[in-house]
């Protein structure tokens, strides 16, 4: 009976998530989309005609990292349809969330931990609105979903690889390369892959992996981006620690309308515990007993360390930014698998974990759906104001001139049609 209940709840969680996605997706640019999508289309298709120039535009840096897959997706869509539809792009990027979920099921099966209860836990944290900025906007999901999918896939394939010419090793290398070129934390896969091969004593594979990793790390770090260092605040380790621990416990942030400070402190305490468990697992020897699960847990932890170093000025508030919280959604899933593998938690104990998870999912869904709909309304209202006044800031913390010019160019060249999107949105809103 419990098996059927868990399966039914998993299906219900997924269907609610899917329905909310389909009914709330927008066909308008937002935040980074003005530069990384619209301005990229201009540079790729209109400003550059030579193959070498287009290749440089595709693989070139965006700030401190590369976003090859994001650019490739936008370029392919425009090349096929001669127009950008952000709603379609968002639906496409969520395929990688589904693929990531499927990959997690494969990991569970490989570890002999695939139960209806563990599937439900994966649904609770992956089909959530905690990272709604990643789910609903192209600039988020096409980078975050893709980098973690290919990072996890690379480690999963590397764990199964035994020959350098085998399909598993080749797929692991290819997936790692895509991860590196998809977002800034993709290079972590190279380091964890090397650790996994050392633990498994796969020395011939390690030699090839080391050479490939050296080249990819060179591409990542040895060409410095043009960043104005004078604009940076002096590093503060206390702020970094606040961000790091809040980030690692953010899978329990429910975005309450009141009492956010208490929720943030709770996340910080939980995050500190997660970090302690991660260290404890290493010194206990679990990292050497089951390197795959330990490496999968290390991906979000090390991602948090990178974010906390580069974004330390945001302090604890930066740890609950919805654009980063997909990374931490993986932490409770992998922790449950590790605790089950260690027999610290038994399968029948999950009946106490699941109700708490469902309560968190419900609170997150309710509160963040409100935040999502408010943000969508602000985006569409801003577009409507911009149509009447080109000096309207499209991004509230950015100068209006640059992004207004990009949007004007995109509408003039029929790359997007904001008027039809705006009319459709407000007509649907009025009907509701």
How far is the first residue's CA from the last residue's CA? Answer: 39 Å
Shape: globular
Q: Which secondary-structure class do the elements indicate?
A: mainly alpha
Order of helices and strands: HHHEEHHHHHHHHHHHHHHHH
- The average pLDDT score comes to 92
**Could you list the spans in which at least 5 consecutive residues all have pLDDT below 50?**
none
Number of helices: 19
Features:
mainly alpha, 73% helix, 432 residues, two-stranded antiparallel sheet
Can you put this structure into words, describing what you see?
The protein is mainly alpha-helical and 432 residues long. Helices cover 73% and strands 1% of the residues. The protein has 19 helices and two strands. The two termini are 39 Å apart. The mean pLDDT is 92.
Write a brief structural summary.
This protein has 432 residues and is an all-alpha fold. The protein has helices spanning 2-24, 33-47, 51-59, 68-81, 86-110, 116-126, 132-136, 138-160, 167-182, 188-199, 203-221, 237-248, 260-284, 286-289, 291-310, 325-341, 350-388, 400-412, 418-431, and strands at 61-62, 65-66.
Itemize the secondary structure elements and their pairings.
Blueprint: H1 2-24, H2 33-47, H3 51-59, E1 61-62, E2 65-66, H4 68-81, H5 86-110, H6 116-126, H7 132-136, H8 138-160, H9 167-182, H10 188-199, H11 203-221, H12 237-248, H13 260-284, H14 286-289, H15 291-310, H16 325-341, H17 350-388, H18 400-412, H19 418-431
Antiparallel strand pairs: 1-2
